[in-house]
Structure formats: structure tokens, C-alpha cells
Specification:
The chain has one domain: L-arginine/glycine Amidinotransferase, Chain A, CATH 3.75.10.10. The protein has a three-stranded mixed sheet, with helices on one face. It has a three-stranded mixed sheet with strand order 3-4-5, with helices on one face. Strands 6-7-8 form a three-stranded mixed sheet, covered by helices on one side. The chain starts with a strand and ends with a strand. It is an alpha/beta fold. The longest helix is centred in the first third of the chain and has 17 residues. It binds citrulline. The site of citrulline has 17 residues, from loops.
Length: about 260
């Protein structure tokens, strides 16, 4: 169960956020602000106390706070984002993390290692980490050096197509795993009950389990029905403007 979340309000420069999907157009900033507020309300409705950090105009992608940090019980890792324009977000998020973790609990990924939190998926005491364009083998090795002494297992997952691991695979609870594309048949996840996201709804593979409920991006009715059929209450929230710059539900918060 989570008790807290950290988010950062979108900045106006959001419209220049990194994207591999320019055909979707630029985000509408005002609309993104409204969607962000609704997202925060969804987190609060799951029982989380939400710390809202101010917008940072120098970092277009800084509302995606999941990437510069990974938080656990009694430890925090400040990452080293692989995207050059996002590297500074690590230092930017640190003061917020220091409000909740002591300096001896905070680890930092450093060059030549790179790692982004969107590549880290927790299932119980195992952390699956995508080897992506943003996270390299040295980043995963450093992450493992921090966490293995704490009793966690770290498993590297080579990615072929998606931006981050959690773009395509997300753990709900009770053994249920939402999968799309390259993860549907991956032997790494064979032990779980895999639920392929219906065709055309791949974006909704990034749905977010929070304290028993699942937050699902709105506009994906088949995925919503699938998740409901598994017995999870669903809360829908619109992330259309974040999607235009490759942002999903999980990347907009750190839950801990
Ligand atoms: C980026 O390309 O870094 C941002 N535009 C989107 C980051 C999405 N983060 C995530 O999936 N964890």
C-alpha cells in the first residue's frame, strides 16, 4: 500500500517535451494543467497524501517525476536520466526526496550509468529494469548494487520497441500483469497471469494500480472492461495532452 505521492505541475515548456510521436501534435498547455489536477485528484481519491512541486520552466519534461527517482521502503534512488535534456531533473527532484528520506537512505546513479524510473517495475521484492535507449547496463548494475544488499532482486529486461519498460508492461496486483507488444510472450514474465491489452489500446498498458484500485487513461474502454473483469475498481483520468509527448499515467507521479 502507498501513503504518499510526489508530482510536479506541468510547465509551459511542456509543449516542447521530447516525443517520438510528433504526428500527435503539441500538447495544449491549459488542457494539460486541468488534466494534471484531475490526475492529482485521482491519486488523492486512492488515499494518497500528494506533495505538489512547482513547475520548472527549464525542464520541459519535468512533470514526469517518475523518471528522475525510484522510491522504496527506507531507500530512494536518484537516477541519471539518459535523455540529455532531462539529466538536470535528478538534482531538481533531490530536495523533495530529502523531505522523506535521510541522506544515508538515498543512492545516486552516476555516469557512465544511466537509468530512468519509467524503466523500473516492481513486483514484490523484484525490480524489473528495462534496458532502453534511456537506461543502460551500467545503470542497471548500479541499481542492483544499491538494492541487492537490501534484499531486493534486480532483473534486466532488454527492450526492443517501447520507450520505457512501463510503456508496455505494468503489474497490477495478485499476479495480474498488463502486457502489450513485445511483452506478451516474454519468458521473463511467464510466471504471471498476463493480460494482453486489446489491439489499438496499447497506450493503456500503462495503467496504474494504487491501493487496490486501478487508474486507467480515459478513452480505452476495452482495457477498462478487462481490468474491471479482474475485480479491480477502475478510476479513469484523461492524459491526452501528456500522451502527445509520450507520457503515461505512471510517469506523472512517484508513489511510496
Ligand atoms: C520523455 O521522452 O522523456 C518524456 N517526453 C516522456 C517521459 C515518460 N516517462 C515515463 O514513461 N516514465
Amino acid at each position: 500500500m502507498f501513503t504518499r505521492a510526489i508530482v510536479r505541475r506541468p510547465c509551459r515548456a511542456l509543449i516542447n517535451g521530447l516525443t517520438g510521436n510528433p504526428q500527435l501534435g503539441k500538447p495544449d498547455f491549459e488542457k494539460a494543467l486541468v488534466q494534471h489536477e484531475q490526475y492529482v485528484d485521482a491519486l488523492k481519491s486512492c488515499g494518497l497524501a500528494v506533495t505538489e512541486l512547482p513547475a520548472e520552466e527549464g525542464f520541459p519534461d519535468s512533470c514526469f517525476v517518475e523518471d528522475p527517482a525510484v522510491l522504496g521502503e527506507g531507500w530512494a534512488v536518484i537516477t541519471n536520466p539518459g535523455a540529455p535534456s532531462r539529466k538536470g531533473e535528478a538534482g531538481l527532484i533531490l530536495p523533495a526526496i530529502e523531505r522523506f528520506y535521510s541522506s544515508s537512505q538515498i543512492f545516486r546513479v552516476t555516469d557512465p550509468g544511466t537509468l530512468e524510473g519509467g524503466d523500473v517495475m516492481r513486483i514484490d521484492h523484484t525490480y524489473y529494469v528495462g534496458l532502453s535507449a534511456r537506461t543502460n547496463a551500467e545503470g542497471v548494475a548500479q541499481f542492483a548494487r544499491f538494492l541487492e544488499p537490501l534484499g531486493c532482486r534486480v532483473v534486466a529486461v532488454p527492450l526492443e520497441k517501447v520507450l520505457h519498460l512501463k510503456t508496455g508492461v505494468n503489474y497490477l496486483a495478485e499476479g495480474h500483469l498488463l502486457v502489450s507488444g513485445e511483452f506478451e510472450d516474454s519468458p521473463l514474465f511467464a510466471a504471471f497471469e498476463r493480460h494482453p491489452v486489446p489491439q489499438g489500446e496499447e497506450y493503456a498498458a500503462n495503467s496504474l494500480w494504487v491501493n487496490g484500485a486501478v487508474i486507467v487513461p480515459s478513452g480505452f474502454p476495452k482495457t477498462t472492461a478487462l481490468i474491471r473483469s479482474l475485480g479491480f475498481p477502475v478510476k479513469e483520468t484523461d492524459t491526452s495532452e501528456f500522451r502527445k509527448i509520450d507520457g503515461g499515467l505512471s510517469c506523472l507521479s512517484l508513489r511510496f
